[in-house]
Amino acid sequence: MKPAAAQRSAEAALSRHAWGDVFAILSEADRQHPLGPEDLERLALAAHLTGRDPASDDLWTRAHHAWLTRGDVPRSVRCVFWLGLDLVLTGEWARCAGWTARARRLLDTGPPDTVEEGYLLALEGLRSYFAGDMAHTRAVAEQALAFATRFKGPDLTNFAMVCIGESLIRLGRAQDGVLLLDEAMVAVTAGEVSPIVSGLAYCAVIAACHEAFDLRRAREWTAELSRWCAAQQELVPYRGICLAHRVEVMRLHGDWDDALDEADRACRWMRSTPAAQSADAAYYQLGELHRLRGETERAQAAYREASRLGHTAQPGLALSLLAAGDTGAAARAIHTALDASGDGITRCRILPAYVEIMLAAGELEEARTAAEQLAAIAEAVESPLLSAVSGQARGAVLLASGEARGAQAVLGHAVATFRDLDAPYEAARTRLLIGLSCRESGDDITARLEIEAATAVFRELGAVPDLLRAEELVLKAANGAAGLLTAREREVLRHVAVGKSNRAVADDLFLSEKTVARHISNIFAKLGVSSRSAATAYAHQHGLV
């Protein structure tokens, strides 16, 4: 193919976002006639988006030298920015520092005051972010944003805003940070920025939503990322985090069967790609789904794979040990995880499981301290989801402390929030705790209703361990309710259970029909049923006939 024809074909493929075709067309053209710097940049972009990171690095390097040969220092420095992004994201800090220093020297000898100054500042900000220096990240990114504003550079504007937003979240200003990320995403969804910057922005905003426990935003931006990825043919980077976060969002919203299929698909897809990204997160989510369904061996295998790939296996692994009955091992594992957790956001992902395991181990004061820490973080973060999770933990501690009525108030707020967030599993777990607290305070009818409601959700979701526990509690509540019946009420129930009418029961027991009706009304209330058939079923199930 002649150079002009190859360029037309590549441009057509670019317009379709067919990155594999772009790479194939331009690679073949480059073999026949070495490409100029603009086409080298296009080829480097296609290599990056199809997961060919080593080829991408080589091509950005070639483009850098080609622009230098033409005497265009700013364009050569811009290539260093894209190369530096690859190096930072793959953890090659020394190479990135070397290239950044070279680009800085080139700018010092080239035209003064260019937008590329801002690009190098943005790259420095990204390096600071990964080094954990959020204050420096914010300061440098704000300088980069000033350059972007002066030179009207959409890519740099977007990149700098995302860096500032992420640093604000880490600095404890979650709402300000998330709002800035929302603003940055306007340009992304409008197609105003390049594919690499778009992909990085999507990943950043979704990760930030999860870090800020903002379930609604996470769901919305994950759906947008899914649509964007679908439009990018043969895309490899960014799709991994899309799939992993999509699984988590589906799990939280109760779509467990679909989430399990998606998790399997994510793990298979990422194993087959030349540059698997976020496979560790996908395996962790797969482990969570298996754990919740009671598939302990599969869960632990998935956690091991996630750990092998660099993701923490906690708190899921500790909870799976607890579900398997090994409370001691679960306690040791969650202690280690909590000790290793650093900042508040990371810590609050461990604390709810820590409370649950400490309560199971009989360590009430440990659980209380952890619940108080979680409450303090939740208050600072101002996240409805985290607030509800904290309320669930505090309610469990109050219940274990014998403060049943106090637990009911806290748990009631938590379950209302979980419902509002459409998080059915967490709402059901909270209702189960409400049922237990009602039983402790002597309200057996409400206890039965709450426990049965939770049981129905667990059954629908396939949450086997929770279902077994809830069914056991239903049985205990039912037996307790039977004990509340008077001798005469049990006698009336036995007659009703064999199909007798009120008149027949009255005749057999030498009572008035009005008295029989009053006894039946009392029986319905104490058993938490609303019909003769339900009362009959209850009598047969509990050996009253």
TrEMBL record:
CDD domains: LuxR_C_like. PROSITE patterns: HTH_LUXR_1, HTH_LUXR_2. Transmembrane segments: none annotated. It comes from the Bacteria. SMART domains: HTH_LUXR. The keyword Transcription applies. Keywords: DNA-binding, Transcription, Transcription regulation. The lineage of its organism: Bacteria, Bacillati, Actinomycetota, Actinomycetes, Kitasatosporales. Pfam families: GerE (PF00196). This is Response regulator transcription factor. It comes from Streptomyces caledonius. The keyword DNA-binding applies. InterPro entries: Sig_transdc_resp-reg_C-effctor, TPR-like_helical_dom_sf, Tscrpt_reg_LuxR_C, WalR-like, WH-like_DNA-bd_sf. PANTHER family: NITRATE_NITRITE RESPONSE REGULATOR PROTEIN NARP, TWO-COMPONENT RESPONSE REGULATOR. Gene3D superfamilies: Tetratricopeptide repeat domain, Winged helix-like DNA-binding domain superfamily/Winged helix DNA-binding domain. Residues 478-543 form the HTH luxR-type domain.
